[in-house]
Design brief:
The chain is α+β, with helices and mostly antiparallel strands. The chain contains 18 helices and 12 strands. A hairpin with a 4-residue loop joins strand 5 and strand 6.
C-alpha cells in the first residue's frame, strides 16, 4: 500500500519580531506581508500489505503444470481449437502431435477435458508425452536414425516401456527391440530385466551374463524363472527356450544350453547332498502386490517365550473364489510373503519369527546386516535336528528368554535332538535401490 505525504503551505514568522500569536489573531491588526511559498515535497512510503505472505516453510498449493514441450513448427501458429482438432483427428505422426498435449495443459486444460474433446484417454495422453520425450533423448544421444525411424508409426507403446532406463540403456534397448521385433510386453520385460540385473548379485550363473548386452539381461530373467522349477517341466523348458532366442553372448548361451540339457539340475542335487543352504532374500517394494500367489504366516517376536511358537496357528488357507483367508484360530501378528518356493512348500506348521538384529544369524554377516531387522521362516513340522549344516530355530537357554537360530552341529554338541523348527528362509526388509540410480544428467 502506498501513502502520499505532502507539506502544506504555512506562513513564515520571524522569531525576531515582537508580534505574538495573540496579535496575529487580532483582526484589527494589519495583515502580515504575503508569506513566501515553498515548493511541495512528496515522499512515497511502502507499507506492509494487508494480505499475509506465506512463511518460507509454509506449504502453498500449486497445481501441477508440466514443462512446456517444443511444439513442431507446423503447429505453432494454431490456436487452441486448431490444436484440439489435430489431436481429435490424429493429424500427423504421433510424436508430432504429442507435444500439443502439454501445451493445452499449460493453458488450463485437464486430462479429462482433453479426453472429452479429442477422445484420447488420460493414460494414452501420458504415454504419448513420455514416449515423445524418450524419442527426443534417442535423437540427442546420436542413435542411428534408421533405428529411431522404426518407431515413427505406432512406436509410442514401445518407447514408453523403456522410459525408466538411462539414455545409454535406451539406445541399446531400442536397437534390440527393433532387431528382435519385440511387442510392448517384450519391451516392458526387457526394461525390467535391465533394471533388475544389478540387484541379482550372488545369483547362480549371473557372472556368465553381460550387463551391457540387453539380450543377456532379458535372457537372465528367463534363466532365473526356469531355475524356479527343478523338474524338467514344460514351463521350465519354455523359459529356457525363450532365453535362447534373445541371449546375446556365447558364454551366456552355453550356460542356458547346459541348463536345458539338465546338467545344472544334477549339479544342484549334488550341492544339496553336500550341504544344506538357507536362502536369504531381500523383499522388494511392491513385490507382494505384484505376486500372483502369496502366503500368509503367523509371526512371533524373538523376545517372546518359546511356547508362543507352538501356540501360533498351524494352518492358514484361502477359501472360495475370492480367496478369503481362514485360520484355525485368531492371532495378533501376521505377515504376507510372495509365493517363493520354500514358503509355498511349507504346508502345515509354517511360522515366522521377527528379529530386530540380523547378527543373531549363526554366520558372519556383512556390516550392512548389522542392526537390520529380519524375518526367519521356520517349518515346525520338521523339529528333528538331522543335518549338521542345517539351521534350526531353538529357544535361548533358560525359560522364556526368546529364540535363536543355530546350526545343527552346535545343537548336537549341546545334546539337543529336537528344535522348534527347521529354518527354510531368511527375509530381509525392502530397501531403496541406489546401486543403479539414473544419474541426474540422464533424465530427459
Amino acid at each position: 500500500m502506498l501513502s502520499l505525504t505532502s507539506n502544506t503551505l504555512k506562513p513564515i514568522f520571524s522569531p525576531f519580531t515582537s508580534t505574538s500569536t495573540t496579535t496575529f489573531l487580532n483582526p484589527h491588526q494589519p495583515p502580515h506581508p504575503k508569506p513566501s511559498l515553498k515548493p511541495i515535497s512528496a515522499s512515497i512510503q511502502q507499507f506492509p500489505s494487508s494480505t499475509p505472505k506465506p512463511q518460507p516453510n509454509q506449504q502453498v498449493y500449486q497445481p501441477f503444470r508440466p514443462p512446456p514441450s517444443p511444439i513442431p513448427e507446423q503447429y505453432r501458429s494454431l490456436d487452441v481449437n486448431g490444436r484440439l482438432e489435430i489431436l481429435a483427428n490424429r493429424l500427423g505422426l504421433w510424436y508430432e502431435y504429442a507435444p500439443l498435449i502439454p501445451s493445452l495443459l499449460q493453458q488450463g486444460f485437464t486430462p479429462p477435458t482433453i479426453e472429452e474433446v479429442t477422445g484420447i484417454s488420460g493414460v494414452e495422453q501420458n504415454r504419448l508425452v513420455v514416449a515423445a520425450q524418450v524419442r527426443e533423448s534417442l535423437i540427442h544421444s546420436k542413435t542411428d536414425p534408421e533405428i529411431t525411424a522404426e518407431f515413427d508409426t505406432g512406436g509410442s507403446e514401445l518407447l514408453y516401456e523403456i522410459r525408466l532406463l538411462s539414455v545409454q540403456q535406451r539406445t541399446a534397448a531400442a536397437r534390440f527391440i527393433v532387431e528382435k521385433r519385440l511387442d510392448a510386453k517384450g519391451a516392458g520385460d526387457l526394461a525390467r530385466a535391465t533394471k533388475d540385473f544389478p540387484r541379482r548379485r550372488g545369483d547362480k550363473g549371473r557372472e556368465s551374463f553381460d550387463y551391457t548386452n540387453p539380450g543377456d539381461c532379458l535372457a537372465f530373467m528367463y534363466y532365473r524363472q526356469a531355475r524356479e522349477h527343478r523338474d524338467m517341466s514344460e514351463t521350465r523348458t519354455d523359459a529356457l527356450e525363450e532365453a535362447l532366442k534373445v541371449v546375446g553372448s556365447e558364454k551366456a548361451r552355453s550356460v542356458i544350453v547346459r541348463e536345458l540339457e539338465g546338467e545344472s539340475v544334477r549339479d544342484e542335487e549334488e550341492e544339496v547332498v553336500a550341504g544344506v543352504k538357507v536362502p536369504v532374500v531381500r523383499l522388494k517394494f511392491g513385490e507382494v502386490g505384484e505376486s500372483s500367489r502369496v502366503v500368509v504366516l503367523p509371526v512371533c517376536k524373538a523376545e517372546e517365550k518359546d511356547k508362543e511358537v507352538m501356540e501360533a496357528p498351524w494352518e492358514c488357507e484361502s477359501e472360495g473364489e475370492l480367496g478369503v483367508v481362514v485360520a484355525e484360530k485368531g492371532w495378533k501378528r501376521w505377515v504376507v510373503l510372495p509365493g517363493w518356493e520354500p514358503v509355498v512348500g511349507l504346508g502345515r506348521g509354517g511360522v515366522v519369527v521377527s528379529f530386530s538384529d540380523a547378527r543373531v544369524l549363526p554366520w558372519k554377516v556383512n556390516r550392512w546386516y548389522k542392526e537390520e531387522p529380519i524375518l526367519v521362516v521356520a517349518d515346525r513340522s520338521k523339529k528333528e535336528v538331522e543335518a549338521d549344516d542345517g539351521f534350526y530355530l531353538a529357544a535361548v537357554d533358560g525359560e522364556g528368554l526368546g529364540f535363536k537360530v543355530e546350526r545343527g552341529s552346535a545343537l548336537k554338541e549341546a545334546g539337543v535332538k529336537e528344535s522348534l523348527g527347521t529354518v527354510v528362509l531368511i527375509v530381509r526388509p525392502p530397501k531403496d535401490d541406489t546401486e543403479n540410480e539414473i544419474a541426474e544428467e540422464d533424465w530427459e
